[in-house]
């Protein structure tokens, strides 16, 4: 490895409150497999100054080169970040550039791909390299989630895409890995951002966001009515988890949009996912299939959710859920 970022597989690190977020490790896990297939360097681009230890962390997660945009300005708005990224891309000509499908990734990449006059595949759930052509195969749900489309960018470079958070787990950090840190000094702003943040409103859920929860208790239309979601909250509290919902449940106003799991909601990857009255539509499964253990309760033994469940309980939620709560209360204390 030469330590050069040229013609590599690049990922855009995700920064929250001045620190590297775990999503950056997910991107590097995708990037590592692509870079290994191509025999190319894996590069993490860090869009603002972060502590040195965080840069070493990116190397430990698999980056060969880390390029930091060092600036005194803190987080740059995406319209100022875009020309800086474009300059780097023109200089080093990466083959592939990946960001997370978060607000930052989506905003920055939709500006960057237009600036670079290449393509952009948004919201991918799978990425691999075509063995014959070396092209990036970008897979994402399409036509209302009813098909999985695989998209190529044959004529333009870099091949750019955003990938859904939680669609891959970060690799285990290897502190013995060695990489090169390249610092790019960002000059004082020569122009003013056209973006103005008027306000930011905290999403007041019940604590940990569902995308970060280890245990999820999920309700669907089979819960019958919104009041029954209180029972889900009770079980989630007993298990030390959070409550998620299907789009049907959200559309009926039983749960907030921030708890929606699936194609048009969040992708989750908890250790344990327990659903009540969820049919298992493909658009829902698209957001939870990487859960480690799946338990489903549904009164219809043919419900598709049982096809992905490790443990299926055919029964009425009105009986199974209160019985589970009673049992957990007897055992008391959060699940270990
Ligand atoms: C473009 C697009 C995007 C979408 N995005 C999403 C998304 O992000 N997330 C999502 O979830 N959906 C999404 N959907 C909707 C999806 O297709 C399904 O309609 C939805 O997931 C179904 O939700 P549900 O399982 O709660 O309801 P239903 O499909 O109506 O299932 C209810 C289930 O509850 C069971 N049941 C009923 N009563 C009881 C009882 N008393 N005890 C036990 N079981 C009972 C039934 O047997 C049934 O299986 C999307 C659809 C489209 C077209």
Structural description of this entry:
- With 336 residues, the protein is α/β, with parallel strands linked by helices.
- The protein folds into two domains: 9-185, HUPs (Rossmann fold), CATH 3.40.50; 210-331, Rossmann fold.
- 28% of the residues lie in helices and 24% in strands.
- Strands 7-11-6-1-4-5-12 form a seven-stranded parallel sheet, sandwiched between helices. Strands 14-13-15-16-17 form a five-stranded parallel sheet.
- Helix 3 packs across helix 4 (103-116) and helix 5 (229-239) packs parallel to helix 9 (317-331).
- It is elongated.
- The two termini are 43 Å apart.
- The protein binds flavin-adenine dinucleotide.
- Flavin-adenine dinucleotide (FAD) binds at residues 144-145, 220-222, 246-249, 260-265, 277-279, 281, 283-284, 287, 298-300, 303, 316-318.
- Name of the CATH class of the largest domain: Alpha Beta
Shape: elongated
The unique ligands bound to this protein are: flavin-adenine dinucleotide
CATH architecture of the largest domain: 3-Layer(aba) Sandwich
Radius of gyration: 22 Å
CATH superfamily of the largest domain: HUPs
Q: Widest sheet: strand order? A: 7-11-6-1-4-5-12
Strands, count:
17
Distance between the termini: 43 Å
Total of domains: 2
The major pleated sheet works out as: 7 strands, parallel
**Helix share, percent:** 25-40%
Helix segment count? 9
Runs with pLDDT <50, length 5+? none
In CATH, the topology of the largest domain is named Rossmann fold
Whole-number mean pLDDT:
92
């Amino acid at each position: 490895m030469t330590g050069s970022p040229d013609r590599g597989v690049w990922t855009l690190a995700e920064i929250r409150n001045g620190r590297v977020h775990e999503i950056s490790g997910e991107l590097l896990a995708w990037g590592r497999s692509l870079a290994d297939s191509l025999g190319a360097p894996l590069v993490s681009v860090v869009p603002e100054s972060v502590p040195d230890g965080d840069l070493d962390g990116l190397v430990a997660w698999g980056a060969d080169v880390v390029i930091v945009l060092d600036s005194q300005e803190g987080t740059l708005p995406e319209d100022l970040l875009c020309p800086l990224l474009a300059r780097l891309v023109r200089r080093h000509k990466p083959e592939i550039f990946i960001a997370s499908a978060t607000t930052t990734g989506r905003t920055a990449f939709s500006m960057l791909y237009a600036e670079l006059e290449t393509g952009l595949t948004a919201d991918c759930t799978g990425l691999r390299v075509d063995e014959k052509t070396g092209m990036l195969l970008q897979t994402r749900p399409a036509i209302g989630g009813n098909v999985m489309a695989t998209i190529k960018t044959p004529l333009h470079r870099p091949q750019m895409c955003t990938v859904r958070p939680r669609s891959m787990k970060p690799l285990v950090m290897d502190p013995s890995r060695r990489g090169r840190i390249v610092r790019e000094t960002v000059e004082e702003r020569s122009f003013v951002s056209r973006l103005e943040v008027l306000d930011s409103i905290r999403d007041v859920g019940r604590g940990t966001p569902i995308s970060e929860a280890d245990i999820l208790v999920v309700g669907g239309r089979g819960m019958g009515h919104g009041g029954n979601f209180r029972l889900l909250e009770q079980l989630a509290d007993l298990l030390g988890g959070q409550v998620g919902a299907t789009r049907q449940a959200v559309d009926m106003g039983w749960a907030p949009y921030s708890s929606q799991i699936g194609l048009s909601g969040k992708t989750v990857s908890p250790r344990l996912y327990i659903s009540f009255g969820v049919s298992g539509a493909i658009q829902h499964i698209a957001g939870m299939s990487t859960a480690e253990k799946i338990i489903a309760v549904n009164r219809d033994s043919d419900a598709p959710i049982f096809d992905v469940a490790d443990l299926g309980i055919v029964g009425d939620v009105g009986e199974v859920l209160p019985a589970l709560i009673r049992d957990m209360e007897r055992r008391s204390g959060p699940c270990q």
